[in-house]
Amino acid sequence: MYKYMTPEIIFGNGALEKSGESCLRLGAKRVLIVSDPGLQESGWTNKIEQCCEDIDLPYSRFYGAGINPRDVEVEQGVDAYKQAGCDAVLGLGGGSALDVAKGISILATNGGRIADYEGVDLIAKPLPPLVMVTTTAGSGSEVSQFSIIIDSKRRKKMTIVSKSLIPDIAIIDPVLLSTKSSSLTASTGMDVLSHAIESFVSLAATPLTDVQALHAIKLVSYYLRPSVAAKSNVYAKEQMAMASLQAGLAFSNAILGAVHAISHAIGGRLSLAHGDINSILLPHVMNFNRIAAPERFKQIAEQMGITTAHRTADECALLAVELVTKLGADVRAPQRLADIGVEREDFSVIADMAMEDACMVTNPRDITKQDVLDILHEAY
Amino acid sequence: MQNKQALIDSLTGVNSSKNNYYSELKQTVSALENKNTKLSMINNVTKGFHVAMPMEEMLEMVLQSLDQLYPVARISLSLLYDDSLQLTQVYPPDTEVFPVGTTFTKGASVYWEAVHARTPVHMLVADMPSKYAEKRAFEALDLIFTVSLPLYSRGTTLGVLNIAGKEAVESETLDLPFLQQLADQLAVHIENSRLYTQVLKGKQEWEASFSAVQDMLIITDQEGFVTRTNPAAADMLLQSVPDKKPVHITQLFSHVRVETRLAQRLDERLTIQERVCDVSSAPVPHAENGVSGIVFSIKDRTEQLQLEAQLIQSGKMAAMGEMAAGVAHELNSPLTAVIGNSQLLLRDTQTESPEHQLLTDIKNCGDRCRNIVRNLLTFARQDEYTMTSTSLNHAVQQALSLLYYQIERSQIHIETDFAPSLPDFHGNSQEIEQIIINLLMNARDALEESTVSEKRLTLRTFEKNDELHVTVTDNAGGIPPDRIESIFFPFFTTKEVSKGTGLGLSVSLGIAKEHGGTLRVVQSSAEGSTFQLTLPAEREEHHD
């Protein structure tokens, strides 16, 4: 028995322009636009404001989302929402801005503090109409039931899981990816791959998520390199946007695994790009999980272009690990934890936190704290 | 392992769904409906209460209303009397377990806890401290939960309302603020009911006094229309103004222009329905310096005045009687000598001699003098008046004999017309003689002042309709119309101070009434007037 959930999805070049009227269709009278300073700089927030003005939809701004979504930002955002008398939220950005937008929505109708909702299904009341425009082709937050918010006091990424967090409308406009730096493209691209692979080997994977995951793996394998290589490669960007969407749908429904559990633990302590951490951890976790689902890893290898005939499943799995490592290297994603500033003395704390993370539940291989520490050491 | 699968299930959401505005709306609507039900309940309860409602009925109503919302099985009311909290009402009644009248001890009672807390106290009977007196009773009644609600009105504690039920209900479900609102409404009504009872008692006391007063009390509105009377006044009003239409006070005091004095206090003696009355009035004060009406207090002085008059008159009569007796005694001796000596002389005188006629005259005059003296003695005798069968003609003749010469001397012609064989009346001859004397003297006085050429006084007796009548008629020109009403009042006189006291007619009227008769002016015109004394004829044959 399984369930598959998805928001309404608008995909395509220029889909951004549908953002304003999407809010209007959901009954918005005044919308709070949630975004980050980077997007303001690149002019995308102006574009979205223009969309609202064109259809006379009043809006208020909250462009205070940081590189990682923090509880403080959520609280500031909800104050802005209430002061302006908003009744809908329009998120524009990568995973951080979208998760902050989700956090604001939770508090807007449910009240209290964001930490009250950490865990599964703790949101009692429906959120205001929520429209999300992704700008990174990575996080999958625009289609997922997850919101990851950092608890500033505990220095921990809180995982909030609820069907109510699935936005009403997700807008994926590949054109938005054209302003991204190559390193961000690489980092988010590797994140998409980690979503796809983890959800495919997840204990909660279903035929519906498998299709999405495998196709996403294939798209990343073929189009991440050209997408990183040239901002102007619109076709590659479009394919990466689709890969991100499909991976997002897959992990939202099949959940993730140890990569994300450990990554959340590291991200809670250090302000690092989520995609970079995932990129480093992914091959090591795949290697650890390899023996849990050899046939699955064989299929991953197939999607990545390996000829599986005359090869054992484990041979294929090892090849897949190698290919992932190579892809990371090719797009110049970070390779070692040491390179991005993670300290060995934090490993124990990180391992403890990772063991508690909801994503650990669906990891295909049973895992202990020592296993996590081993992985961390290997990836250092 | 099972645990892990359960976690995966909750993560993938087989057992949960996106929250939905429709269900949220339904929840909100149902919460509103619940609130509405409660509000309308408070409204109904409030509307249903009325000040005179017995407490038990109120509780029954509250219980029935609450029953629609919660499993409430018992409701009780405890009221605070001078720092003593006492169980006053229980519904349904369960006197055996916890009798009405039970008082609760501070510190050992959940009711007291509510009084001190000033907020609803919700408790499961099982959790109740065993020192609480109510615990035993609730347990005996199989009650599971109880809520004690303090009753406050205008800042004072009235008591505690307690509701209890046989199923465990959480305080959230009970909606304590709502129950407190209900209790507040009840408190207001209990307070009102108490005040009403006080006011009602005051009103009843006042009304009883109002009815018990023998003086007539009349209350009018500002315009002078009668709004309320006590029984004494109602009788008088009914005689004076028989129809039931709004009666104006001036219809009662017709000859006094009361309307001009409505706003002022009135305090004077007026004549109402031939009664002498002291009338006083006072405005009924109303809020904001206004006047809502006027109270008239009417004291009937007639009896009192007549009594006074009779007392004075009898005092005078007593003095006069003594004097007359003295004079009569003094006259008796000389008269005996005159009569005796004239008889002796007559015996020795020839009938034909001229002296004989002279002596006869002396003797006759002496006899007449002795008769007068004897009559005078009889009239003035201060015996206890006894009522016996008496001849009216005899009494009239006796009276006339006393005044006959006086009247004749005033050049007044006396005519008499006495009906023969009149029946007797039951009464006192001397008293009736006094009436006749008064009437004759009044007629003589009037005729003396009159300028009519042929002065005439007619005295008649006759029987009509089983009544005996005496009329005294003069031709002295009649009584002025504006005086006719007053002539029977004590101390009313038209005569000089030396001649009259103003008591004659009023005392005569009193005597006539004592005999069950009347004394009236039956005719008064420019020619003259007729006074008529009417007495009932004695029905029974009497034997000497």
TrEMBL record, chain A:
GO molecular function terms attached to this record: alcohol dehydrogenase (NAD+) activity; metal ion binding
Annotated ranges, domain Alcohol dehydrogenase iron-type/glycerol dehydrogenase GldA: 7-174
Residue intervals of the Fe-containing alcohol dehydrogenase-like C-terminal domain: 185-380
Transmembrane segments: none
Keyword Protein biosynthesis: no
Keywords: Oxidoreductase
The keyword Coiled coil is annotated on this UniProt entry: no
InterPro entries (UniProt xref): ADH_Fe/GldA, ADH_Fe_C, Alcohol_dehydrogenase_Fe
Record-linked Gene3D superfamilies: 3.40.50.1970, Dehydroquinate synthase-like - alpha domain
Pfam family name, one: ADH_Fe_C
PANTHER family: ALCOHOL DEHYDROGENASE, ALCOHOL DEHYDROGENASE 4
Family in the record: Belongs to the iron-containing alcohol dehydrogenase family.
Name under which the protein is recorded: Iron-containing alcohol dehydrogenase
Source organism per UniProt: Alkalicoccus luteus
Organism lineage string: Bacteria, Bacillati, Bacillota, Bacilli, Bacillales
TrEMBL record, chain B:
Enzyme Commission number, as recorded: 2.7.13.3
Coiled coil segments of this chain: none
Record flagged with keyword Magnesium: no
Every Histidine kinase domain range: 326-539
Catalyzed chemical reaction(s): ATP + protein L-histidine = ADP + protein N-phospho-L-histidine
CDD domains: HisKA (cd00082)
GO molecular function terms noted in the UniProt entry: ATP binding; phosphorelay sensor kinase activity
One Pfam family recorded for the sequence: HisKA
Domain of life per record: Bacteria
InterPro entries, sorted: GAF, GAF-like_dom_sf, HATPase_C_sf, HATPase_dom, His_kinase_dom, HisK_dim/P_dom, HisK_dim/P_sf, PAS-like_dom_sf
Gene3D superfamilies cross-referenced by the UniProt entry: 1.10.287.130, 3.30.450.40, Histidine kinase-like ATPase, C-terminal domain, PAS domain
Record flagged with keyword Isomerase: no
Keywords: ATP-binding, Kinase, Nucleotide-binding, Phosphoprotein, Transferase, Two-component regulatory system
Protein's name according to its UniProt entry: histidine kinase
